[in-house]
Amino acid sequence: MNCQFCFTGRMGLRKHLSTAEIVEQAVFARKLFSDEFGTITNVVFMGMGEPLHNVDNVIKASSIMVDEQGLQFSPRKVTVSTSGLVPEIKRFLNESNCDLAVSLNATTDEVRDWIMPINRRYNLSTLLGTLREELRLRPKSIVLFEYVMLAGVNDSVDDAKRLTELVRGIACKINLISFNPHSGSQFKPTPDEKIIEFRNMLIQSGLTVMVRLSRGDDQMAACGQLGAAGDYQLPLLRVPEKFQVAL
């Protein structure tokens, strides 16, 4: 997807996992970790690629995970994350009873066009309008909006105000994510104290907000760091002039 802040996203497409390969990961994780950490109860489709690019197999795999004859996860504990593929979002919300997470990361089309090129096809208005429309048919569903905090890019007071307005009318939670630096990255993480200020503004507006702490960044295994550069990486995109100082 060539998200500019994500090491994984700039690797390009390597392959799609089959339904069996996806389910096998959950089965294998249970075997590896249940004795040490207790029963594994949550599954999130994200990380190495855009799940809804592989929508057929993701819907099949998630249905096996929540089936009583399958892995017996609760549908509320299985979440599929997307960068914003609108037709596939519609299909997922109509065919699956699992939860949806949307990687938002910007409050204007100018910024999102730059850091998430998918926005040039499905802009913020189209994406959020689709969610409002489709979620009317799923009144018990809550969308998780993921928001990676990038210093000087999407972490201003105005961004907090715009974010509040953008998600108004959508049953949601906001997950603020500290940016994890990696090789070739243009971006810097927002300081922790500014993340807390941003969070508090959203809470004061009536939103439910979580802050995700970085885990695994010392091993290049945190959110947005997974992958291997290889011989090919998608290109960095032109930085809008007003953000060049921030970078």
TrEMBL record:
GO biological process: rRNA base methylation; tRNA methylation
This protein's UniProt keywords: 4Fe-4S, Iron, Iron-sulfur, Metal-binding, S-adenosyl-L-methionine
Bilayer-crossing regions: none
Pfam families referenced in this protein's UniProt entry, alphabetically: Radical_SAM
Keyword Iron: yes
Protein's UniProt keywords contain Oxidoreductase: no
Protein origin, superkingdom: Eukaryota
Name of this protein: Radical SAM core domain-containing protein
Cofactor section: [4Fe-4S] cluster
CDD domains in the record: Radical_SAM
Domain (Radical SAM core): residue spans on this chain: 1-212
GO molecular function: 4 iron, 4 sulfur cluster binding; catalytic activity; metal ion binding
